[in-house]
Amino acid sequence: MIEKTIKGIKYLLDEENLTAVVINKKGYEGDFIIPETVVFKKVAYRVTSIGKSAFEDCSSLTSIVIPDGVTSIGEEAFYDCSSLTSIVIPDSVTSIGESTFDGCSMLKQKPTQEIEMSNIKYRLLMHNHLAMVLGHSGRPKTINIPSEINHEGVIYRVTSIGESAFSDCSSLTSIVIPDSVTTIGYGAFAYCSSLTSLVIPNSVTSIGESAFDSCDKLTSVTIENEKEKVKISGCAFPYSAKINYVGKPKEQPAKPIENPYHQAILEVEKATAKQATATKAAEKTTVNVQTTPEPSQPVSPTTTQTRNRDKADYVFNGKKVNHGVWTLEIADDKSVKIYKNGEPCKKTSPALRELAAEIGFTYDPKWNTRQLGGKLFAQLIKLT
Fold this sequence. Notes:
The chain is mostly beta strands. The chain has three domains: 1-109, Ribonuclease Inhibitor (Leucine-rich repeat, LRR (right-handed beta-alpha superhelix)), CATH 3.80.10; 111-254, Ribonuclease Inhibitor (Leucine-rich repeat, LRR (right-handed beta-alpha superhelix), Alpha-Beta Horseshoe); 260-382, no CATH class. The protein has three helices and 29 strands. Strands 11, 12, 13, 15, 16, 18, 20 and 22 form an eight-stranded mixed β-sheet that branches. It is globular. The termini are far apart. The relative contact order is 0.07. Mean pLDDT is 80; it is low at 279-318.
């Protein structure tokens, strides 16, 4: 691990995994855009995390854009950034720490909200509708964590159990962890002295340090996954616990995940060859047009408008396609970039939804940025 300031931003570089964490450096101010990758000594590092207190007390910081690929934002990362008015958080962020935006008085809507339902406390991530379990308000004997919760008509998927969420809950004898959870945090169940057995679903890929430390009666742990697929940090389980990896329970073989880019690239190759001999004459084409929908509502064409569209509106250049004022690009790392009038859009997802509405493309609101970008890319190819 080495600390290095690159283009005004301080990073902790992991030379083994080639990842970078943004760390504390006084003096961040104005409008800030964190890059997806940084280069040090001709080696590229992926930015994957905003560290604890990274921008704390940066009172002159006014806006910040966090890149796709960042998965966590540490506690108090933007604490007391009193001039911060805008922050863009990608769907890739699945964990946001405690007090991260406390003191950000200029933010009209906080990116997180803490609630309690059925005595279980949660932190809601507003940008991608995920929920972190923070703890319990009582001293329960059994806890059944739901896979999702409904708050004010919005469904939030429960994907993580936070640091020290149920620590020192000595009355707890049974815990049900849903198969939506992927991460169990540091000390989440430490000192749960009455817990005797545990089943961890195959969705869990990371178990934090001391997660079940000092659970002295815990003798049986079943992990429904293969050993190499679960990252277990030091002292996660007591010595008394016998860990049994059983792999994924038998079920119907899962369908392979659709890659929205593969077919799109094949279509690019076909369309490029076709365009080389195509006439430049304008053609009249009917296109579905609608206003941009609310992010939580499914898109469906509502009105039809006929306009002239020259085939030159669509220009293929490797993995890039143009449509009017829009340019949609799929980078080599499969990330999606979208430009309007030649300028990069700071908010990728809303821009993609606006483009989808313009061409009358129906999409699933649950798609993440890469999925929507890939599907739109393929659709623009087909329109030619």
